[in-house]
Write a structure and sequence with these properties.
The complex is a heterodimer of chains A (327) and B (286).
Chain A: H1 2-17, E1 24-29, H2 39-46, H3 49-52, E2 55-60, H4 68-73, E3 79-82, H5 84-92, E4 97-101, E5 109-114, E6 129-132, H6 139-148, E7 160-163, H7 169-172, E8 178-182, H8 186-192, E9 200-204, E10 216-220, H9 227-249, H10 251-261, H11 269-282, H12 291-302, H13 321-326
Parallel strand pairs in A: 1-2, 1-3, 6-7, 6-8
Antiparallel strand pairs in A: 3-10, 4-10, 5-8, 5-9
Chain B: H1 3-22, H2 30-58, H3 69-78, H4 80-115, H5 117-131, H6 135-146, H7 150-173, H8 178-186, H9 191-225, E1 230-231, H10 235-244, H11 248-276, H12 281-284
The chains are: A alpha/beta (327), B mainly alpha (286).
Chain lengths: 327, 286
């Protein structure tokens, strides 16, 4: 309601100032629910950075049953936040999504194991049960397992892969030996549940050389032919990065802004503040996609053994056109 | 308007006209009548598929939103081993076992309730309560209790099928008329004799009603339960993950298998009902 009132007032002021200058509408589809992982966008909206760029941005939270690519392809959003593995897989499936900016330079993906299972190094996964999320989030794990030469058929020489829900219960109840966890989210849920760092062995995907780029901004390729859309996205990326910069400098306040925007009321202050702190470590200096990191992601995804995530090197999957103008 | 859409619309119009004509025919021989009864819905179904295919191709709808039937069929044929493994995991294990235990226990508890007024007051409200539990709330708890494999899905199916069976059987057992029961008493029939010779046969239509309702409920329950944690096989697993991978043709193939399995299961129960309750007026008539 507060947001509605604010946008109404903002709309009224804009109308009052100049009839001709109606703000451009942009709809952003997030990959996941409202949380500090997306603080930059909420800050930019809250602090009026979008307004300064003459944008009227609607932020749509995601969730466990929302595939951002489908929303984008169906015309429900102009731009989406997605992980590169699922974006590139979608591109190969015929949805031409293009990365226009990459605010996250580092990956926060980890595999957390209980120490008592005897796992000390990734090679010890043999015969163990690993829990992961699906919905496109399983790709980095599959690349890692094929790099380790471990089949995921549940045999003695391989690993048993389980689809887990978006919570850490399987690890707490020892139904899985290891589960995927983000440094900024599930890891702290495990700690909050009573396990200590001494009980856990944490493998960072980045250190294992299977890091793939996470939260980037993607649009549909054909829309980039429209100069007006490009201009709109340039302003959007510029204002979003200003939001991210502010969130990095004021993590606690940014977490509070996220909480204000959480319509579900499911997030807690302690968790969001901690999350913002961890998110800040993953952010790049600007949103320009690093060519080397892109190359590494593609190479990781291509080595999927019998079932690679993508079968051929994508072409035109990213553009620096927007970030060059915005930064 | 392009040619694909125009073609699909023309096919639709033609099929409509044909069906209009066929449904007005009144053949004499029963065989012809039966053939006609199958032909009309078949033509209607084929028309739907043609219009679907034409619309997807004609309007150039992205395959990640709605794949054409031809792509779904291609996937169905090429992914038989995966579909079969999923079918085994979900239907042959979770659904059938859960269905048997859920219906069986519902039936036995109903007889116990019928025998004892104490249970009637205590258990029936509890059954009501269990039936009101939302499946998406129960499923994660079952996964927590019974692990990731099929037993947790069977448990969800049991919870879902138990109550319809219980209520229907209790009602069925009460449906024999007072005059029939009096007659049994004048014959000096025992409780057991009355139960097997009079009351259960009278309850059969109610029991089969529950079995039919449960045949579809069980499949829904097992598939939805798989959304909340599974080993990497099963129909619900496949549907929920392939959506995320943009393989919508696979999702539809899995839905087709589920629809087919559900219909066959229902049909089998309905046929058994016909054989068992042949005396009932609803079946005697034809």
């Amino acid at each position: 309601m507060k947001r509605l009132m604010m946008s109404l007032t903002a709309g009224a002021t804009a109308l009052g100032l100049s009839q001709a200058m109606a703000a451009d509408d942009v709809t952003l589809q997030l990959k996941w629910v409202t949380q500090a992982q997306f603080a930059g966008y909420y800050v930019a909206a809250d602090k009026g950075f979008y307004e300064e760029e003459d944008l009227n941005v609607e932020i749509k939270p995601g969730g466990p049953d929302i595939a951002p690519v489908q929303v984008l392809a169906g015309g429900g959003a102009d731009v989406m936040v997605d992980w590169m593995p699922s974006a590139l897989a979608a591109r190969e499936k015929g949805v031409p999504v293009v990365n226009i900016a990459q605010p996250f330079a580092r990956s926060g993906l980890t595999m957390v194991c209980r120490k008592e299972t005897g796992i000390e190094k990734p090679g010890d996964f043999k015969g163990k049960t690993l829990g992961t999320w699906f919905f496109g989030n399983e790709y980095p794990l599959y690349s890692w397992l094929s790099k380790l030469g471990l089949p995921r058929d549940g045999s003695e020489n391989g690993v048993t892969v389980q689809k887990i829900g978006f919570n850490v219960d399987p690890l707490l109840q020892k139904q899985a030996d290891c589960i995927t966890a983000m440094t900024y989210n599930e890891y702290w849920q495990i700690i909050d549940a009573g396990l200590t760092t001494d009980d856990l062995v944490v493998f960072s995907y980045t250190e294992q050389g299977v890091d793939t780029l996470e939260d980037g901004l993607y649009v549909l390729e054909d829309k980039l032919d429209d100069p007006e859309f490009v201009d709109k996205m340039t302003r959007f990326v510029k204002a979003s990065m200003k939001g991210w910069q502010w969130a990095r400098d004021n993590p606690d306040e940014a977490a509070m802004i996220v909480l204000d925007n959480d319509a579900t009321g499911a997030q807690t202050e302690k968790h969001q503040k901690r999350m913002m702190g961890e998110i800040a470590k993953l952010l790049g200096d600007d949103a320009t996609l690093d060519g080397a990191a892109y190359k590494r992601t593609v190479e990781t995804l291509l080595q999927g053994g019998s079932d690679p995530v993508i079968t051929k090197e994508p072409e035109g999957a990213f553009t620096h056109m927007i970030t060059e103008k915005a930064m | 308007m392009n040619w694909t859409i125009a073609g699909a619309l023309a096919f639709w119009a033609g099929a409509w006209a044909l069906n209009e004509r066929l449904s007005r025919l009144e053949p004499r021989s029963p065989a012809a009548k039966r053939a006609l009864g199958l032909l009309v819905p078949a033509i209607f179904g084929i028309t739907l598929l043609v219009v679907w295919e034409g619309a997807v191709r004609g309007f150039d709808i992205s395959p990640v939103l709605l794949p054409p039937p031809s792509a779904i069929w291609a996937r169905l044929v090429s992914a038989v081993p995966i579909l079969w493994a999923d079918f085994q995991q979900t239907f042959l294990k979770a659904v059938l076992i859960g269905y048997a235990i859920g219906c069986g226990s519902g039936f036995l508890v109903a007889i116990a309730i019928d025998r004892s007024p104490f249970l009637q007051r205590g258990l029936l409200p509890l059954g009501n309560f269990v039936s009101a539990l939302p499946i998406i709330g129960v499923a994660p708890i079952m996964v927590m209790w019974f692990g990731f494999d099929w037993p947790s899905k069977a448990a969800v199916v049991i919870i879902m099928t138990f109550f319809p069976m219980l209520v229907n059987t209790v009602q069925g057992l009460a449906s024999s008329s007072a005059i029939d029961r009096d007659l049994m008493r004048t014959y000096a029939a025992s409780y057991r004799q009355t139960l097997f010779k009079l009351r259960l046969p009278a309850a059969a239509p109610f029991i089969f009603n529950a079995l039919k309702i449960n045949s579809t409920l069980a499949l829904i329950g097992a598939i939805v339960a798989e959304f909340f944690g599974t080993p990497i096989t099963g129909m619900g697993f496949r549907i929920s993950t392939e959506v995320g991978r943009m393989n919508l043709d696979m999702v539809w193939a899995e839905i087709a298998v589920a629809a087919l399995a559900g219909s066959l299961f229902y049909g089998l129960v309905a046929l058994t009902e016909r054989a068992v309750t042949f005396w009932h007026p609803s079946i005697r008539g034809g």
